[in-house]
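Milestone 3.1: sequence recovery, worked example.
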């Protein structure tokens, strides 16, 4: 089995490098976002654990069920506020990530577009050259076939004259 390896053209290489650079920078931005969310989640988990321990301790030392119910009810509002703050932090991280991704894309789009156009131009040029080569080969084959037909016809005509 014969395999043909065609080297990557400079334009294709440049375009792949531009694409890789864009994707690498986008990945970095997304990784930073995941880090921020993980840090926030760890912070929230620590706070929730500390408050749960404190709340449980307050419930355990309550003198009667009404006091325990009052303590539990008083803990609901701060939990709701903390949840709202958590969601706000997540929204801020998401908005910041969106801004960072747009900036990253804006930074890379001109180079990526330039390399894509250069690669398309090179592909069009190569296709035109290949089409021209194929056309020349077909023309040469047709001329050879025409010459062969004419020479066969001329040879056949000469044989019929000699036999008469």
């Amino acid at each position: 089995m014969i395999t043909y390896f065609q080297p990557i053209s400079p334009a294709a290489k440049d375009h792949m490098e531009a694409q890789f650079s864009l994707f690498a920078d986008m990945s970095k931005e997304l990784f930073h976002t995941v880090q921020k969310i993980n840090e926030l989640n760890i912070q929230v988990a620590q706070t929730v654990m500390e408050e749960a321990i404190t709340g449980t301790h307050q419930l355990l030392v309550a003198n009667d069920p009404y006091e325990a119910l009052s303590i539990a009810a008083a803990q609901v509002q701060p939990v709701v506020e903390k949840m709202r703050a958590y969601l706000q932090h997540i929204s801020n991280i998401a908005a910041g990530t969106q801004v960072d991704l747009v900036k990253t894309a804006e930074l890379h789009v001109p180079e990526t577009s330039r390399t894509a156009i250069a690669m398309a131009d090179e592909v069009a040029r190569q296709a035109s050259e290949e089409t021209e080569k194929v056309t020349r080969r077909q023309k040469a084959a047709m001329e050879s076939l025409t010459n062969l037909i004419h020479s066969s016809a001329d040879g056949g005509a000469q044989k019929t004259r000699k036999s008469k």
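The CA atoms of residues 33 and 93 lie 7 Å apart. Residues 10-120 form one domain.
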